[in-house]
Amino acid sequence: MNQIINLDKINEVRQWLLSKKKYLSDIPFDLDLIENDVVDSLSFVEYVLVIEEISGKEVVVDDTVLDKVRTLDRVQLHYME
Amino acid sequence: MSITQTMYTDRIARLVQLSRERHVFSFTRFDWVDDISEADWWVSPELLTTYGTPYYEQATEAQRKLLSKWECINLFSLNVTGEQELIAGVAELLHTPMLKEANDYLHHFIDEENQHMWYFAKFCENYAGKIYGKKKIQLTELNLDPRLSVLVRFAQIFIFEEVGHYYNLKIALDDRVHPFIREINEAHRNDESRHITFGRILLARLADGIAEDYAPEVLQKVSNHLRKYVQVTIESLYNPTMYRDAGFASGIAVRSALLSHPVRQEFHARELLKKVLALLGDTNLIEKETSFEPDYQS
Q: Which InterPro entries match (chain A) (predicted)?
């Protein structure tokens, strides 16, 4: 049975990123946000805090966190489903 | 500001002596109370992150006190996670030639920070049932030489400790705050005042001459990094989870509004960061500017 995936929450994260990076017109779900400097050391904290508020789940910042939040696809998989 | 080698070693020897004379065993020193009421002040009302804004003015005293509980837990959690990071960073520098004269003191430093971390964590677990986790991460390597790497590490420690010390001092002296919380702040203040003195001495000694020893672009990189570190440190005081725990619907909205509020920015620049930025400017680790205005935008 196919699971219905709700993208409302991840779209909220995307909208927040777009509001911070006004030079971007869109952020593809598979874009590496760190490699492409959409998220840097300074904005990382807030990015994580926004994911937490929207998902209602804690983002534990450990050695594995970068792989879980590097793209919107991965944020969806790890925190929004 | 510069200090001679003799002044450096003498002052560190004095700090070692003080750490030994004033050594306490934190694991047994406190009489832990069973409970702290949410009707108590956990931090001074003037230290709340909402102070000076409509969020403070429009809140009842009960709401302010509840927020003071979660702000206290946030401050103590920042101590837990910050000291964990600090201990790991300082331990790496033990027995290195550059810090030879400071080695004995670094052992006391780690010992004292370990005890602080223990009691702050126990406090959070006992009275709030949780510790707020750290959220910051370093995404890029600075690629500095050993001297600048050590300087940056201790500058970060200095920033973290000076900001924490500001709160410890105020809360320890405020008789409106629950006595056990004052006692914890006082205990921390006692040790931290030596750590801050050490940080000042070490930075002044190691940074002596960096303006001549390094290219402007290298020092610019250090300055940019430390300014970001200061900003992340300030922003960590505005934890959205803390606002949600205190009853606000959106912690992010409150944080954004407060961080961009002129009264809060004024407090950061003129009060909280005054000493930190003065020392980092004097030692050429941060480019001197007439003011520090975080570039936070909601």
A: ACP-like_sf
